Amino acid sequence: MSPFVVMRKRIAFLFLCVCLFLVVLIIRLGFVQLSQGADLRKKADDSHFRGVPVAPKRGNIEDRQGNVLAMSVSSETVYAIPAEVRQSGRAKEMALTLSQLLGQPVAEVEAHITKRTALEYVQKRVKPEVAAQVRALSLPGIGTTEDSQRYYPSGTLAAHIIGYAGIDNQGLEGIELTRESELKGIPGSILQEFGANGIPLPQAEHQYLAPKQGNTVRLTIDKNIQAFAERELQKLMSGQGVNMNGQAPKNASILVMDPNTGELLALASAPTFDPNRYQESDPTTRRNIAIQNGYEPGSTFKIITLAAALEEKKIKLTEHYFDKGAYTVLGKNVRCWKAGGHGDQTYLQVAENSCNPGFIEMGQRLGMDAFYKYLRDFGFGQKTKIEMSGEALGILANKKKATALDLATMSIGQTNNVTPIQLLTAVSAVANGGTLMKPQLVKDIVGPSGRVVTPFEKEEIRRVISEDTSKLEREVLESVVTNGTGRRSFLPGYRVAGKTGTAQKVVNGGYVQGEYVASFVAFAPADKPRLVTLAVIDGVPFYGGVVACPVVQSVMLDSLRYLGIKPDPQAPMIPGKPMPGLEFPPIKKAAAVPSVLGLPLAEAEKVLTQAGFKGITEGQGEVVLDQVPHGDAQVEAGSNVLLYLGKDASAPTLAHWWEDEDEDIVAMRNLSGRVPISASPLGR
Question: 17-27: per-residue pLDDT in tens?
């Protein structure tokens, strides 16, 4: 082969190789440009563009009427670009100048502005006038950027629900924490081009990426009803509570729920704190005791026992039960609070009188399996899944270890440990027709444009009792308030249903003698409930009916009026049975009560009848020793007058209200040697 041919072949081969190389190069360049171009451009921008973050405005938290409970207000942040500060050679001079303006130690400021970072915050939440002074100095590498800080215009109102946000505007407690993703928004930034030495390039490109404001969280809470509840708590904590004798409890909570939807209208706890200055508060005041504290509910739990017994048809309200003064279980007597017992009574009267033996009989008829079924169905021993962190489970006695005596004490609200939110939710199921609802705190999420982004509908968990049972028990509990132990919560013209409760206070695994958890739960109107209200007062030497009833009465009355619920013309104006220290001014027609002290019973009844009143007797004897209301009192015409009978007109008849017997206290005293379930093998 000639040299010329060989040369041509070599040239052709080299040309082919070059063409192949160029084709591969073009394909590779096309792949990089089309497939990886955006990513590489971003990496390049990141290497020479630096952003000063612009914080978004955190979304508001509002009550159900749109009243702002938490908002963000504008503030400014001083920042440093340390590379530029070091390049200027004036770090010490700038540190001294800034320390005087910002009120920080010089060494601390110098450490910030010379730190080996691309961007460093020197101080947040700087006053506008201070930020203006910093800008006026035109210090190299020092600047200010827009920021915001959280502000709670109502101070302590609903503090345990709202929670608080930290210095970086991050939610730390309450709704601020649980709805962080909706509230926080998306941060923006101011981008500037820098050289490899960390110094801004002259006439460099600037970009502004606007922040996106967070969404508004609208709560189910009503600011006014919340204020009614907190007003009563403030009275209690300042020693001004009704019947408290100037004493203040350790803590207290008031909860108000719409039983038909599960929406909480108020959830108040005391002591409380101001979220604007949460760092200054005692951590114990930030504890949401309404969902985090457990207690023995006492007689308020009898609502559940009665509901189960009626639903399972273990009793009839017209059926008679004879209370001989005590109920014997496994050789142990559980006494009735009334000396000698109530004698023969219907189960309606058992409920009115809160008769312990009668309720124990209901529990024994139900049996262990059925009783525990209703415990679970009503939501005890499990979280309600309310939108709050740290919710307690409560503690139920271990069914496998429980005895007939445990069943007896559980039937009257002793032994088991529940949270206020659990009890409120369970009683709401009794009030609303028998359906257990999930307690709701968030009504909807609203975008910056005002459009509802996420609405929250009521959530039914399960049906627990029938409509018929619910209606029957509402009537029974109304009778408890009108004629029984709940008369201190009676509201003239409104149909109120409820139940009192008293429990021993547990400290360090043991019961504290002479210190109780007093409670009362009620709903109104009894025939068509709109509100269920629970008050739990912890650490008082008084009983539930005495100190908790007036609290619920006040919150309930103001809330009913605020909601525009008018009095029922058919509702009673006075309790069916008078109570010492409980008097209501006449509404329809006033009449003066004649004094019948010292008169024989027959003559006293004749005098009262002639004056248009009816006498109700208590005690044994032939002579009227005392009466309620007292002589010359102005009351509603046609009222009942309670006559205390005896033989010796000089003998005292009425004890002080704080010396009256309480059904829960009698049961506790009778069951000596009890151990709280939290410290007992029964709770494990």
Answer: 888 888 888 88
